[in-house]
Amino acid sequence: MTTAQLHDDRPPRHDPGRTDHRRSAEAPDAALLDAAGALLRALSAPARMAIVLRLRENDCCVHDLVDALGLPQPLVSQHLRVLKSSGVVTGERAGREVRYHLMDEHLAHIVTDALEHADELQSQPVDAEDGGAS
């Protein structure tokens, strides 16, 4: 997947009533840092990142994700439970199936930004003096 494919052209949604912590000198409070940490832990598994990327494209049922990702159904269901309990995805019953979708496009951007950064790191030459650690 190329960098261009990772990001879409839609502007991010912004709530004018919230502080933009990317530009604020004020540190977020402990509760907000804990919530952000929990979100990042929920997104930390490669299979969950793949689910988020798939749901970014369109809503899916469990069997759609099983087919697309080549993972066993119980494993996909387990990952969906983690994503659902952390507020990343929500499910809507459609007959006998549940269709899952992302709660917010920002969540897909977290994953695509992490992938882009990892790709950049992999393409950098390793500094022999420090073993690549920066």
TrEMBL record:
<dbReference type="InterPro" id="IPR001845">
    <property type="entry name" value="HTH_ArsR_DNA-bd_dom"/>
</dbReference>
<feature type="compositionally biased region" description="Basic and acidic residues">
    <location>
        <begin position="1"/>
        <end position="26"/>
    </location>
</feature>
<keyword id="KW-0238">DNA-binding</keyword>
<keyword id="KW-0804">Transcription</keyword>
<dbReference type="InterPro" id="IPR036388">
    <property type="entry name" value="WH-like_DNA-bd_sf"/>
</dbReference>
<dbReference type="InterPro" id="IPR036390">
    <property type="entry name" value="WH_DNA-bd_sf"/>
</dbReference>
<dbReference type="Pfam" id="PF01022">
    <property type="entry name" value="HTH_5"/>
</dbReference>
<dbReference type="InterPro" id="IPR051011">
    <property type="entry name" value="Metal_resp_trans_reg"/>
</dbReference>
<feature type="region of interest" description="Disordered">
    <location>
        <begin position="1"/>
        <end position="27"/>
    </location>
</feature>
<dbReference type="InterPro" id="IPR011991">
    <property type="entry name" value="ArsR-like_HTH"/>
</dbReference>
<keyword id="KW-0805">Transcription regulation</keyword>
<protein>
    <recommendedName>
        <fullName>HTH arsR-type domain-containing protein</fullName>
    </recommendedName>
</protein>
<feature type="domain" description="HTH arsR-type">
    <location>
        <begin position="28"/>
        <end position="122"/>
    </location>
</feature>
